[in-house]
Specification:
By secondary structure, the protein is an alpha/beta fold. It is built from 15 helices and seven strands. A five-stranded parallel sheet has the order 4-5-6-3-7, with helices on both faces. Strands 1-2 form a two-stranded antiparallel ribbon. The N terminus is likely disordered.
């Protein structure tokens, strides 16, 4: 479990599926080009003062930021990071004073956090050659904290590096992004997700393959599916919503039923999005071997193949809009009512 290091104090974070053991660049899977790029920057002494890691959630962006810090600070394997020295171990556990991790308090990264960050920046590194500032979910900066952060990005110290991490690039101000060197992360290959899941869960065989497929390139999503007790409930609602088995006359009542059974609807809508993507593929006449959730040859597959493509696309767009609403903190009831109304 990582901590948020602010002014020398470690504030424990809630445990998350993506917080897997990090032992330098060798522990980063599925992002060979990213690792090669960062290693080249280290070997040529051209590490940028600020990186912007962007890509899907749960693919290893924050883990790569920690691995970069290990590579910059490790004495046993400089430029690489190792799995044995005290420095790498403390960095992996989030208790090293020269890795400062900033995360949202509640729903936002607040200006008081950036003020604390500025005080820490003035001190520079305590033990390591550099101080690394990892700002996770940087899209959660509010207007005031974003403006305050700009000054630090514009006037960098030589011994300080920023890594800003986001899976919602459209919500990060261009003024922030333009002052960083962007590094893009893609979804992990299904076999990479399956291998990592097999190392951290008891899954095997067909069940491992099923969860790896549903994870859609995200290790954290795969682990969430394994560990979350609501998966079967999610799947029941996903099948119901995807099939249009909803009463248009009682949308508010159905939303109440859904929220009584599902504590957090966002991951459930993520699964629904995968299913409706399958519907779009089927309506477009794509080979059934590319399906993720819908089983080939089923009644659902036949209905989806006979549905007009434009309708399948509109249903998919409705769920995408619902996810954006939930991530923008729109009222859950309103967001879900819109989705169910358009799917009914």
């Amino acid at each position: 479990m990582f901590g948020v290091l602010i002014m020398g104090n470690v504030v424990p974070m809630s445990s998350r599926p993506s917080d897997l053991l990090i032992n330098g660049f060798p522990s980063i899977s599925g992002h060979d080009r990213v690792v090669e790029r960062l290693q080249r920057a280290i070997s040529t002494r051209r590490v940028h003062h600020a990186y912007y890691f962007t890509g899907p959630d749960g693919v290893g962006k924050a883990a790569t930021a920690v691995a970069l810090t290990q590579a910059l600070c490790c004495r046993e394997a400089p430029g690489q990071g190792c799995d044995g020295c005290a420095v790498c171990s403390r960095l992996a556990r989030g208790i090293h004073p020269d890795l400062m991790r900033v995360e949202a308090e509640g729903r936002q990264i607040k200006i008081k956090q950036i003020r604390q960050l500025e005080e820490r920046l003035a001190q520079g590194p305590h033990e390591a050659p550099v101080l690394v500032i990892l700002i996770d979910e940087v899209e959660r900066l509010n207007m005031y904290s974003a403006n305050a952060l700009l000054k630090s990005l514009e006037e960098p110290r030589r011994d300080v590096h920023f890594v800003l991490v986001s899976s919602a690039s459209h919500r990060v101000p261009i003024t922030i992004r333009s002052r960083c060197q962007q590094v893009r992360f893609g979804p992990l290959a299904e076999d990479v997700v399956a291998r990592i899941l097999s190392e951290h869960t008891d899954l095997e065989g067909a069940e491992l393959a099923r969860v790896a497929r549903l994870a859609e390139g995200s290790v954290s999503r795969g682990l969430m599916l394994v560990e979350h007790g609501e998966l079967e409930v999610w799947q029941r609602w996903v099948r119901r919503m995807a099939g249009g088995d909803l009463s248009e006359l009682d949308i508010p009542g159905q939303v109440q039923d859904l929220l009584r059974e599902v504590e957090d609807p966002e991951p459930m809508l993520g699964l629904l999005l995968l299913r409706l993507r399958d519907h779009v593929l089927l309506a477009a006449g794509v080979d059934e071997g590319r399906l993720v959730q819908v089983r080939p040859g089923t009644d659902e597959a036949q209905r989806a193949r006979s549905r007009p493509l434009v309708l399948a696309q509109r249903r998919l767009a409705a769920v995408e809009a619902g996810l954006r609403d939930l991530r923008s903190y729109v009222n859950k009831h309103l967001a879900l009512e819109r989705v169910l109304l358009q799917l009914s």
